């Protein structure tokens, strides 16, 4: 059996001859992870019937993946440095594929939930390695913007594609194919990694900060859990308050430990860099608006406008169009624009989309009112993903994996926070409307959506101002 020789190690300033194959391989791997964040959503009713899941257990099919993924990203970044990026990519892809096969063959709830948790764990190992490999392969500014633009297009469109693919597979095959579909994707990505990603030596002297890893993982998992369940359990419930308090205390202790130990999991220098700090804050705030908008519109299209799951999934395709437009515009600017001029427009575009969503009505038509919202959401997302990932990883050196992992951690926290907080605001506003209009259920739902969307638009405008001040007036570019 013949094997392909590993690509030779090249210098940091010499373009890798296989760099575009690297881009294809790692983008495919991240696309697989992005699909799995949403592909099971529409399949949940079928999963519940097939495996006899209880209503409380049903939500764990989604939540346990987010917990494993969001909670372990920082540790995954450090392990990537310890093992070497090529090795961690192969381990992550293999583990993700095996977990997907177990999930597809699940005979009961425990088997499926275990598989989903393992997908999150191996996804957390994959993402930091993906970003580090991409940053290594494209050190030159002239190509860096284009490469990160293609990568951002894939991960930005993965959520909408996951919804569509989940609906198609569930409707025409079986929900189990929402898990099995990862197998050919993982095989293709692994082949690409073996062919194109050059081996990197294990970084000497790196220690895994066990205390920091435990505190970060526990703190992030507690926060994600608390935010994810705040809407269903209530913000004042014992479980929500306990989880959020434990998360905040865990992360405070983590920050203290990182400033005192040798070889910290998240070196303070990473977040104390104003450009990176601005990127992390911008991504967190953008995710608050992005995931809340997509969440609200999913229910609006299906429950108010009466769209089928597949039609609702297809209705989200303008997000991809807007995303591609945002990427196309911002990618050339990475070489010459100040960092805050890269980060703030993405937040403002998302704010504009949420502002329009605040004026949607029950009788609103798709093309005149929903379509522009989706375009603006995509535009802001594409603009931000390219800017933040490039800014956070460029020049990070030995911290590249952790710097990239922190971007995705910020996104996961923002997604959980936004969906929980804004859903609670929308639910409260809808309940108040129903008390004065008891026969207008659809109108109450839309009223709640309006109130939450307008609040989110204001929040994102404030976030843009804060990022502008945090990054400062320096002319440093994202590619320096």
From TrEMBL:
Signal peptide: none annotated. GO terms for molecular function: transmembrane transporter activity. PROSITE patterns: MFS, SUGAR_TRANSPORT_1. It is found in: Cell membrane. GO terms for cellular component: plasma membrane. It comes from Asanoa ishikariensis. This is Drug resistance transporter, EmrB/QacA subfamily. SUPFAM superfamilies: MFS general substrate transporter (SSF103473). Keywords: Cell membrane, Membrane, Transmembrane, Transmembrane helix, Transport. The chain crosses the membrane at residues 20-40, 60-77, 89-112, 118-138, 150-173, 179-197, 209-228, 240-257, 278-300, 312-330, 342-360, 366-386, 413-434, 454-472. It comes from the Bacteria. The keyword Membrane applies. It is a multi-pass membrane protein. Residues 22-476 form the Major facilitator superfamily (MFS) profile domain.
